[in-house]
Amino acid sequence: MNPSEWIDIKEGDGHPVEHFVIPPHYSKDLDRVLVSHGLIRDRVEKLAHLIAKDSSKPLVACCVLKGAHVFFAQLMENLKKLKNAEGKSIPLSFEFIKAKSYENDKSSGQIKLSLSEEDLKSFKGKDLLIVEDIVDTGRTMVALVERLKQYEPASVRVVSLLLKKTDRSNRYVPDYVGFAIPDLFVVGYCLDYNEYFRDLDHIAVISEHGKKAYAV
Ligand code: HPA
Ligand code: MG
Known about the structure:
Helix content is about 25%, strand content about 30%. By secondary structure, it is α/β, with parallel strands linked by helices. The longest helix is centred in the N-terminal third of the chain and has 17 residues, at about 35-55. Hypoxanthine binds near residues 102, 136, 185, 186 and 187. Its cofactor is Mg(2+).
């Protein structure tokens, strides 16, 4: 996917929180809605079409927990109904990988991965699709892809719903990107701040009040 095919969200973009229905317990904790749930869903459908077009063999779709699970579910819901470029449906199997590196709004610099050796060995010769919610510094994804390649999959592709445009990036770019977003801390659609805000459907910018209210 070429960067011109990403939806580029600019620094000042977004909508007042009052224009949407949000859980009342977060009323003071959000600065603005950056990507509405409807737009996310439409974009996920398009990402599924792009992935299907490029797929010729069965796929092992690896969900990076916890943040990507809603994106993963919606992406698979679309993908299972689609055909590849040769008009064939794509057999899908699922794996779930836990990768955690954030505390408050800062990367802890340490990446914890969890997947059994048995599951990892089953990747040999398979086409992997890693499904991530957000690529920020790129460190988690580079570490994850490197680690998975040791198990000799036939191919590894990465889809991330969000790619953050940040100077802290290691320049890693996923194969498929839903939205390129400004360097702001975002929550919702299962993206969290210390485990909160996963129950918000839209992707929103957290407010200073929200950062304080849910700091650890
Ligand atoms: N929001 C939530 N989780 C994240 C972010 C973010 O902006 N960046 C990296 N992990
Ligand atoms: Mg993630």
